[in-house]
Write a structure and sequence with these properties.
- The complex is a heterodimer of chains A (52) and B (241).
- Chain A has 52 residues and is mostly helical.
- Chain A has a domain of 25 residues.
- Chain A is 81% helix and 0% strand.
- The longest helix of chain A has 42 residues.
- Chain A starts with 9 loop residues before the first helix and ends with a helix.
- Chain B has 8 helices and no strands.
- Chain B has a single domain, classed as Four Helix Bundle (Hemerythrin (Met), subunit A) (Up-down Bundle).
- In chain B, helix 3 crosses helix 6 and helix 3 packs parallel to helix 8.
- Chain B is mainly alpha-helical.
- Helix content of chain B is 75%, strand content 0%.
- The mean pLDDT of chain B is 91.
- Chain B is globular and about 60 Å long.
- Classes of the chains: A mainly alpha (52), B mainly alpha (241).
- At the A-B interface, helix 1 of A face helix 2, helix 3, helix 4 and helix 8 of B.
Chain lengths: 52, 241
């Protein structure tokens, strides 16, 4: 099956690159989400302690 | 130089550097990975035997290279943490593990997808493939062992032992194709003075490798900041950030 100008191996090629992009994006998104979550939790706790 | 390194080992300085450097590493990596992938998919010539299937190389070889490099970084930083008692070194190892495991998984998956049309099978218990699978289990083992301890110091030391002992697997992966008869092809680009592929095919791979390294540094910046926040959660300097 030829796709996007590639030969019969196009499905294999697109699967690999799709997987690579999904892994790269999900890693970046997850590391950022985790940082924001921990940052909010730690700063809230510190602010609460400094106020009391 | 040493003063700068000493400064970098202090959590507030490291946190600040990681915050400033993250967007630079991230956006540069996005540009380089895009250029490398485009070059690999559309600019480099097709292989006369493998056709377009050879283009899997640009995701596969670069991720395999990263999988091994990140494990070596984990082992070195764990050793630094154990020898010089630098907590931040353990944090670097802990922050590196998930991204290293992802690259290893990508190398194995892309290798299997490449193997199906080229070798006629998704998987063989070949020395290169098996030792790479062992690397993935080492990453999982490191993360699982760390997660099993509530005390960060104990988690650092136990994980550090796995990282240091497991690094023996990296030269086994690298030289497995020379030491044993394997289906996997021998080294192509590590002999940069005399690479086995033409420059037209080589440059996108080098661009992707540089892009993946910058991507790793970008993720490391975020994960390192998370590790610092967890370890320094009672420190008042965090309020000034």
């Amino acid at each position: 099956m030829e796709l996007l100008g590639f030969d019969k191996y196009a499905p294999y090629l697109l699967t690999v690159y799709g997987l690579a992009i999904v892994l790269l994006v999900s890693n970046a998104w997850y590391s950022r989400a985790e940082l924001k979550k921990v940052q909010a939790k730690v700063l809230r706790r510190l602010q609460h302690r400094s106020e009391s | 130089m040493w003063t700068w390194f000493h400064k970098l080992a202090s959590p507030p300085h490291c946190y600040r550097y990681a915050t400033v450097l993250h967007p630079w590493f991230f956006w540069l990596s996005v540009i380089l990975i895009s250029v490398g992938f485009f070059g690999g998919l559309y600019i480099s010539p097709s292989d006369y035997q493998m056709g377009d299937a050879f283009r899997i190389l640009y995701a596969h070889a670069a991720s395999a290279y990263m999988a091994m490099s990140i494990y070596v970084i984990m082992a070195i930083s764990s050793a630094v943490g154990m020898i010089w008692r630098i907590k931040l070194a353990f944090a670097v190892a802990a922050a590196s593990a998930p991204v290293g495991a992802s690259f290893t998984a990508l190398a194995l998956a892309s290798g299997a997808i490449w193997g199906q049309p080229m070798w006629g099978t998704w998987w063989v218990w070949d020395a290169r493939l098996t030792s790479t699978l062992v690397l993935l289990f080492l990453y999982f083992g490191y993360m699982a062992l760390r997660a099993s301890f509530e005390d960060v110091t104990k988690a650092d030391r136990a994980g550090g032992i796995i990282a240091i002992v497991g690094v023996v697997n990296v030269p086994i992966i690298k030289f497995s194709v020379d030491w044993w008869n394997t289906l996997h092809q021998p080294a192509t680009i590590s002999k940069l003075d005399n690479p086995s592929i033409t420059v037209d095919m080589l440059w996108p791979l080098l661009v992707v490798i540089v892009g993946f390294n910058l991507y790793y540094l970008a993720i490391l910046c975020n994960r390192l900041r998370t590790q610092i926040l967890l370890r320094e959660r009672n420190a008042k300097w965090l309020l000034e950030q």
